[in-house]
Amino acid sequence: MRAVVVERYGVPPVVKEVPEPEVAAGGVVLAVEATGLCRSDWHGWMGHDPDIVLPHVPGHELAGTIAAIGDGVEGWQVGDRVTTPFICACGTCEQCLSGNQQVCPNQLQPGFNYWGSFAEYVAVPYAAVNLVRLPDVLDFGTAAGLGCRFATSFRAIRQVGRVGAGERVVIFGCGGVGLSAVMIAAALGAEVIAVDTNPDALKLAHEYGASHTLQASSSTVDQIRDLGGAHVTMDALGSGDIVQQALHALRPRGRHLQVGLLPSGVQLDVGRLIGQELEWRGSHGMPAHAYPGMLELVASGNLKPADLISRTITLDETPVALAALSHGTPAGVTVIRPTG
């Protein structure tokens, strides 16, 4: 099969022929119809993830059709249209049995623990707990974006952040995760403030429901406070500077959601956390069993993740697009069509 292969960290990958993945017992192999280009893929390419072993194929947001089924897999057929969370949980540990597959200690992540979906085929382990059947009305490009950015934002905003109607929510970073969060928070009736350096991203944020858009600057916190301060803030990019701004923009007893990765760590003003009774909440993906509620809102038109897709590229265009993330995140979501 053709795949995007990283041979050296930080050096643009190459598109080449590699062996197709073998189907394992309890798992399946998917023909990849669409896969998203995500900043997490950039972190992996830069060498920020210790689980990656070179040479490596990135890609963790995916949708496709089942091409092969391993021993012991029931209820699925070759040709079924599916997606999967980027966290492939084992299904048998304590966390999985409690419904918290997103923090499974035995998880395997395509594009990190093993070769991912920037390819014509990808393996999915533990099919019984990780496959999500796609409605016929949902196209593969939209479905691919659900597996990481949209699903992550959905659970972060709705469940972890407990965002309610009338609350003021500030989203820092309007890439795929941030724009998804803007759309979801607005659909829940929140007053959304979007912050970014990219005017095009802020324009999209306004289209997706942001009541206010702020060009990131040294006065961002003061501007948010002038609007009344935030009940909830979210770092959708992963920046120590953003974290400090987000915490200082919160009202007393506010909640901060950390979704963006922080490979260099961060220092917190713990005194402010204590004195203002602030919450710091991490949020990591969403388990497969929680997808039906999200898919119902998509099918009803209350959520429109398809609107987030700003461009579609081929495998051959992917190395340049991945490397370009070093210079900033383009507005909207980029979808790769491996067979396009």
UniProtKB/TrEMBL annotation:
Keywords: Metal-binding, Oxidoreductase, Zinc. Signal peptide: none annotated. One of its GO terms (molecular function) is zinc ion binding. Residues 10-336 form the Enoyl reductase (ER) domain. Its cofactor is Zn(2+). CDD domains: Zn_ADH6 (cd08260). Belongs to the zinc-containing alcohol dehydrogenase family. PANTHER family: ALCOHOL DEHYDROGENASE-RELATED, L-THREONINE 3-DEHYDROGENASE. This is Alcohol dehydrogenase. It comes from Kribbella turkmenica.
